[in-house]
Amino acid sequence: MMQRRQSGSADTASLRVGIILAENFTLSALSLFIDHLRLAADKEDKSRPILCTWQIMNSRPESIRASCGVSVSRNSDLTDPTAFDYIAVVGGLLHGRRQVDEPTTRYLQKAASLGVPLIGICTGTFILCRAGVMKERTACVSWYHRQDFMEEFPDHKACSEQMYLVDGDRITCSGGGGAAELALHLIEKHLSRPLARKASHILLLDRPRRGDTPSLQPHPPLTEEVNHVVDARVRRAMMEMEQNMIDPLSISDVADRLGISSRQLERLFQSVLGMRPALFYRMIRLRYAHALLSQGELTITQVAFETGFSDCAHFSRQFKTMFGHSPSAMRGRSSQSAPIFPPVTATRQLGERAGVRLFEAL
């Protein structure tokens, strides 16, 4: 059981955050967010909430269970929203599960009407949208959940490039590392940059950012291409491939996850995209490799491994065939100079140019 004991005074704190946890919330998102606040809040290192305070709220007295099975106790009932500078909602598992109850939804709506800034962490953004408090606001969504978001909220704008996004008095983040960066942003804004740096140093998560600009999400999403594909089975297959880069699935495994045969999947891809699924899979892995190399942080061998290639020489040959230059020529080059990747609508021409033999079945 985890419980945060409050010993500081919220009246004297420069940053006051109320936290609502969804059922089956993501523990890592909460811990990365709250530990940055904890380390910045104390003048020594005793975990005292002096400079900032945080309070876990729940409409019911029982503890809240995370998706990993760990339970967290509340500090209070749903407190007066104006007692906080921000109210953050930490989301978690999406499908087939209730995330928050009706009293919590009404509480978020009340907070919005009172002008209290709201934060959506991980799929907490979905909760804010369902509560109707994200109208005419752009939401930051992880590339992993973007398709789910677009299907549920077709009238909302979504951003899957940044780790977090500030849109007026609504802040949303992609979860994981995005929760950490968002916490640093709040600490810098309300306390100081040195305190933010202190927290990230202690957590060994120090990564310099360009001023107040959020980092980019580390995975180049296929979402724009996916959104243009009408067939739901092909869209799902594309997402399965994108979510399995380091250890690529076999095409038969992809088909099994969709509940269809490999032959059916081959026909679908040929009909919709004009190419075999193995060709498409290899293409997006090479695109990801291109993005990693442009960041200049990994060696060519590491990039090959991260994109599912066990043979570095084989990876280099395929990379050069697709992009016209070797990985060694690409490494460290600015991502702004990267070529525009061909959309899936143009993959038929790509398949004809590269040759199916280059992208043999996995």
What does this 3D model show about the protein?
With 362 residues, the chain is of the alpha/beta class. The protein has 2 domains: 15-202, Rossmann fold (3-Layer(aba) Sandwich); 223-359, Arc Repressor Mutant, subunit A (Orthogonal Bundle). It has 15 helices and 10 strands. The chain has helices spanning 27-41, 102-113, 124-130, 146-152, 177-190, 193-202, 223-227, 232-242, 251-258, 262-272, 277-295, 300-306, 312-323, 327-330, 347-354; strands spanning 15-21, 52-57, 64-65, 71-72, 86-90, 118-121, 138-140, 157-159, 164-167, 170-173. Strands 2-1-5-6-10-9 form a 6-stranded mixed sheet, sandwiched between helices. The longest helix is centred in the C-terminal third of the chain and has 19 residues, at 277-295. It is globular and about 60 Å long.
